[in-house]
Each structure stands twice: as structure tokens, then as C-alpha cells.
What we know:
The structure is a homodimer.
Chain A: H1 4-13, H2 16-27, E1 30-31, H3 32-41, H4 48-60, E2 64-69, E3 77-82, H5 84-108
Antiparallel strand pairs in A: 1-3, 2-3
Helix pairs in contact in A: 2-5
Chain A binds a DNA duplex through residues 7, 10-11, 13-15, 17-18, 31-33, 46-50, 52-54, 56-57, 71, 73-78.
Amino acid sequence: MENITENARSQMRKGVLEYCILCLLAKEDAYASSLIARLKEVNMIVVEGTLYPLLIRQKNQGLLTYRWEESTQGPPRKYYSITDKGREQLAQMDEAWNDIITTIEKIKS
Amino acid sequence: MENITENARSQMRKGVLEYCILCLLAKEDAYASSLIARLKEVNMIVVEGTLYPLLIRQKNQGLLTYRWEESTQGPPRKYYSITDKGREQLAQMDEAWNDIITTIEKIKS
DNA sequence: TTTGGTACTTTGTGATACAAGGTATTAAAA
DNA sequence: TTTTAATACCTTGTATCACAAAGTACCAAA
Lengths: 109, 109
């Protein structure tokens, strides 16, 4: 019941966020905090409480795996890697994303 | 727990759908069934149970108004129009949408 | 008066972003 | 030794939303 625009932005992020994670992990392994930092850089604001359950979901779906790695500064980090199944899913999401962009273009034309 | 891609597509539509409705109504007034037909044309599959509550929400937010119009075939139709406030919201959603596209492009590059 | 088409509405469910809080590890400061 | 600060991971409760599946109402033709 507050800023409806902010809510709209939040809703638009829904689903796209999952796509972003797969995109990022397709390029290199990463741990949660570094993913958050990367997403902040590109103005995709995400909080921990959103990202951690998302990573767990994707891992449970077999899209990701992880390994623990020591850090020189602070506690160990959980590095996530994309799996073959994750890359397949990413390819399908690429298609879905392009479809949506096309749809919006059609609607606006 | 079935087709995760279909679920992902559905999640991607979330929020974007609200945007689509404003885009369509910015061009011309329409009633629910015609909006559904239009969205099906552009492969944005939407069912009644999704669209009707959405229209009611947007009307309650002051983004839309409606009027009843007789039909030559069948029951009267509820024609929706976008309001000034709706056009403001649409402008902000244009911006949000372009931001997200830019974000994905950055992430994929 | 029944049937079929059109149109609008409601209810229940599952999925998900977010806010707010918590736990655990490490190293440096008090 | 104890405290503090930084880093990193995790959980719980809430609100929102798309969807499936139902229902209600109007109208015209058979």
C-alpha cells in the first residue's frame, strides 16, 4: 500500500533474478556475497534473504553444485558452479527472455 | 515439481503482465476478454483468473477506470480506460523495464 | 425452455521477493 | 583473555502474484 512503482519493479525482478544467477555462474563460479555485490553493481538490488533460498532451490533442482573454499579473510565460502542441467535451463531461459522482450515490443508497436 | 522451465516462464511474466496491460490500454480502451485475446496473439498466455484480479487491483490503485457498454452479442462488457495516474505509472514502468533489459545485457556481456 | 456462447468473478494453492532476525568464523583491538 | 568488527551463511514470517478450477449472469438461437 506504499510505493506502487517500487512494488512493480520488485515484481518485474521476479523470475528474472533466477535467470541472472545462472547467467553469472555460467561465466565463473562465485559465492553468495560476491553475487550480491555483482548484482548491486548492475542495479539489480537483492538482499541476502532472497538470494540464499534461491541458490538452495537451484541446487536442489540440480542446476548448481557447490564446494567449500577457505578464505584468507573471514569464514569459508560456499562457491557455486553451474551444472550441465543448469546450462540447459539457462538456454531455455534465454529463449523465454527473448520471447518476453519480443512480446513487449509487439505490444508497444 | 514438474517442468521447471514452464514455472520459470511463469515467474518471468510476473510483474511484466501488469506492464503489458497498461501498454495495451494506453493505446485503446478494451475489455477483459479482448485483452486476453490480444495477449494470446503475442504468446503471452494469460487466463481469466489471472487477468480479472489484476484489472481490479489496477483500478483500485487508480491506474484504470471502467465503464459498462452494451454488446450486440452477449452480456455487457466492462471497458477499461487508463487514467492520468496510470500513464504516469506506465512511464515509470517503461523506465524499470529498460533498466532490467540493460541489466541483463550487462550481466551477459 | 433448453442449449451454447460470451463475459465477469471468486476461491484455493504454490511460488517467490523481502524484511528482520539469527548463527558461525576469523582477526584485530581493548 | 575478552571484546569488537567484519565476513559469510541461514531461517522465519509476510505480502504478493499467476494459475487452476470452479461459479454466476446475460443473451440469442434452436
